[in-house]
Each structure stands twice: as C-alpha cells, then as structure tokens.
Amino acid sequence: VQLVESGGGLVQPGGSLRLSCAASGFTFSRYYMSWVRQAPGKGLEWVSSIYSDGSNTYYADSVKGRFTISRDNAKNTVLLQMNSLKPEDTAVYYCFLTAAGRNYWGQGTQVTVSS
To answer: Fewest CB within 10 angstroms: 32, 55, 67, 71, which?
Structure first.
C-alpha cells in the first residue's frame, strides 16, 4: 500500500487549497478512504471520509460546509477541496486507509493558514 499526498501550502485565511492523494498497491475502488489531520502539538483528528463508490461522504463538524471530499476510482485518487480556510485548519493532512485490520497513511502534506 502506498498513499502519496500533495497540494498543501501556505494560504491566507479565507483562501482555498485542493489536496490530492495518489493511491497504489491495493484495489482502490473497493475501499472507504479518509482524510485526517494533525495540528501542531495535537493528536490526529478525523476530517472526512468517502465510500468506495463515492456515494456517501462524511465530514467533521469543524469542516462541514467548507471542505469537499471526492474520488476518482479510474485514477486511484482521492481529493479534498478546502475552501474558506481558517487558521485553525493549519495541520499536516494525511490520506488514511484501513484494510485487513491495518491502518495506512502517507507522509502527509502541510497546510498552513496564516496572514
């Protein structure tokens, strides 16, 4: 299993970013995928999840209405569109998968929201 996140960066409050996760090494279209994040000095926080076929999506209250998760099973990619970003969204964002009783995540991508 390999998960490679990209798309992070420095953005001003109110700005937008789109994160991407490229997945390989497993049958991507069969698995529920998630994004989690870790802010400085804090634990992992679940952000959003999407069903294997993209039919259902779920969001943490803290991001609901601002973030949108999607996936492209033909490209083995899961995306996180982040709008109206706030300083408290600053964190390392990870693509996350649970398969066969094991958890997998990538190296993460840093998102910094600051003026």
So the answer is: 55
